[in-house]
Amino acid sequence: MMDAWLDALTLSAGYNTRLVTLGALLLGAAAGMVGSHVLLRKRALISDAVSHATLPGLAAAFILIALVQGDGRWLPGLLLGAAASAALGLAAVQAMSRHTRLGEDSAIGAVLSVFFGLGVVLLTVIQAMPVAGQAGLSGYLVGATAGMLASEAYLLGAMALGLLVALVILRRTLLLLCFDPEHAWTQGVDLRRADAWLLGLLLAVTVVGLRVTGLILIVALTIIPPVTARFWTDRPHALLMIAAVAGALAGYLGVTLSSVHPRLPSGALVVLAAFALFLASLLIAPRRGLLAHLIDRYRFVRRVHCRQGLLALARGEAIFDPTTLRILHRLGHIRRDGLATAQGRAAARDARHEERLWTHYRHAYPEEAAQLGARRLEPISRLLPPDLIDELERRLPPEAPHE
Amino acid sequence: MTEFLMLSLVPLLVAGLCSLSCALLGNFLVLRRQALIGDAISHVALPGIVASFLLTGTLAPPAMLVGAGAAALITLALIELIRRLGRVEASAAMGVAFTALFALGVLMLEWSGASGVHLDVEHALYGNLESLVWFEGTRLTALWDPQALAGLPPQLSRVAWVALLVSLFMMLAWRPLVLGSFDAAFAASQGARPGLTQLLLVVMVAVAAIAAFEAVGSILVIAMFICPPAAARLMTDRLSHQLAWSQAFALASAVLGVVLAGHGPGWLGIDAGLSAAGMVSVVAGLILLLACRFGPRRHRAAPPPG
Q1: Bridge-partner residues for A71, per DSSP?
Q2: Which terminal Cβ of chain B has fewer Cβ within 10 Å, N or C?
Q3: Which parts of the chain span the membrane according to its record (chain A) (predicted)?
Q4: pLDDT score at A147
């Protein structure tokens, strides 16, 4: 089984598998890029409405084609029907959220459930029809690349490639639309047309993805990679690139894995591969990830304990908190019996001096001090410029005499 | 008449009860702009049910409900985690969580070979209203014959209990629900605990979705959470009236949908049944379309004068 997967991974598991793998890779990249824009526009779930809205068109096209030639399985026609009804659904979402008081969430939910319901009704019509190729339709629900014809794979690959090219060409306009529509408008960008382009590309990705991941799961391919990328960067161009790479990887890993065994559904595996990448990012991404958060928190807690302990030493008070004692001991500031070492006494004096400088700074510059917030626990020389510290030192009021 | 008792009565009642309870809760989801929570929860019922089937080996209702409920809670926790850590909006976090879990459900289903035998994706999506046959409903007297009534499909009593539970929840939590939907800060100042109310609302949504899931499928559940309340929202500015409208719309969709699905093709001279769950959603969508076109309160409220 491992060997079969390795064969697929190195693209040496047969012509068809290789084609489908490359197609899924391109599709994942395109979906990641489109999804990034949609995410930045804060409309991530609109693709859910689009993908569910393809079903009635798909079923209607199947019925029409079946009436003409007896077998409804003709990919270009099916995709055309899917695109038409998805466009209708998209228009319905836009109209509902623009012209009525309903929010976009209600519009999305209404369109996806009603269109899907209509699709299901049409599917039962198909079941009652005496035509061949009915089983092929369920492949569009949850995706199946196993039975794909070479011609279909070519078509999908070519479409995915075309989408990728269109996205690269349009990326400046689309980013401008997402980040600063007003600025885009002053630059002469037609906002409505740019928005239409974005939604059109989203629709195209959805339709191309139908055959690979199925219509329920294609939405995942436009949401998970961009959210994954969000963990790694704050820069829009980097976001696009990382999302594209994550999407491509997901498509590649998912399709190759599913080629190992006929019972492994390609759509689900592509999505789960994307989710695995996401989980890894959630855990280990620098700054945003769970691990980074925990480390930050641990450092902060340590700093607070250390500072409070040193201040207590400087005031000659006893320390009771076991965590504080442990941290001070590990830093060599106190001995095992709790008495301060020479180094500890020096550090305590420094901490006390620093605390006085901070107090003075807070009085002199209250607003700037408020902005620093909890970073006040870091050494003052790292946060404030040297001349300011000099000034604070000079104006420091004389220390109250020890008793 | 006996045909109606045997074949149509139970689907009608089940669809009606599911629609009523989902639409009742949906009013608050639509007001709070959280309509898609219903969508997310009904999608993750599938992995929950499959996982509980693989673990326990039965499709007994309690195991299924526990599995689906656990999946719903995991999803909510995951959404919250992604939203906080990734600093993305809630809808994107939702999209990540429910699609991944649904994919996991599909994978488990296909891999375990349980599909086709006991469960399948299609069934999960569009339910099985048509199969709810009351075999004992052979004559009118069966309606008060306890023995015949015992033969009613178990889904009926399940959705009836849920409808009762939802109504009770609405009555008990009415004030905090309303306050929290319009002004969460004010609700908190009145001691209404908006966070807790929100959680309870989502739990009730999960309960309603999961109970309805097996009988009517997730698509009908989503449609009923959103379409009737959204249409009702376009009819009136008063919340109590909105609730009444939504119940009327839900009931109308359920009855019309089931009847059309069962008899519609027959009127056209075709001998086939259509998917009742799908048809109910379509009717609900048509009602929403009419409300969008003609509803007296369809536009956003103008700013108050002065």
Answers
A1: A132
A2: C
A3: 20-40, 49-68, 74-95, 107-133, 153-175, 196-224, 236-255, 267-285
A4: 64
- Reported ipTM: 0.90
A381 class by beta-carbon count within 10 Å (0-12 exposed, 13-18 middle, 19+ buried): exposed
- At residue A340, φ and ψ (nearest 5 deg) are -70, 140
Structure tokens at A83: 């695109």
Determine, for residues B34 and A105 on separate chains, whether the beta-carbon distance falls below 8 Å: yes
Q: Which member of A44, A120, A226 has the closest CB to residue B278? A: A120
**Spans in chain A with pLDDT lower than 70:** 1, 13, 132-136, 138-139, 142-147, 374-376, 399-403
B111 touches chain A (CB under 8 A): yes
pLDDT at A209: 85
In the block, residue with structure tokens 């190729």 = A133
The span from the CA of A326 to the CA of B89, in Å, is: 41
Give dist(CA B34, CA B40) in Å, integer. Answer: 10
- 8 Å CB contact of B230 and A264: no
| C-alpha of A86 from chain center | 24
Reported pTM: 0.85
Per-residue pLDDT reduced to its tens digit, B285-297: 999 999 999 888 8
Is the CB of residue B281 less than 8 Å away from at least one CB of chain A? yes
Distance CA B283, CA B288 (A): 9
Find the CB nearest A272 among B103, B223, B285.
Answer: B103
Of A21, A17, A1, residue with least CA distance to A273: A21
Beta bridge partners of A334: A340
Q: What angle in degrees, to the nearest 10, is found between the helix axes of B61-86 and B35-56?
A: 130
List Cα–Cα distances, A49 to A37, A185, A252, in angstroms.
17, 28, 26
Backbone angles phi, psi at B32, to 5 degrees: -85, 5
Which pLDDT score is estimated for A403? Answer: 41
Taking only residues 41 to 70 of chain B, the set having a beta carbon closer than 8 angstroms to any beta carbon of chain A reads: 43
Model pLDDT for residues B153-184, shown as the tens digit of each residue: 878 888 898 899 999 999 988 888 888 888 77
Token pair in block for residue A163? 């989408």
* Closest residue of chain A to B284, computed from CA coordinates: A114
> Would you state the pLDDT for residue A260?
81
The predicted pLDDT at position A36 comes to: 92
For A33, counting Cβ atoms within 10 Å of its Cβ (0-12 exposed, 13-18 middle, 19+ buried), the class is: buried
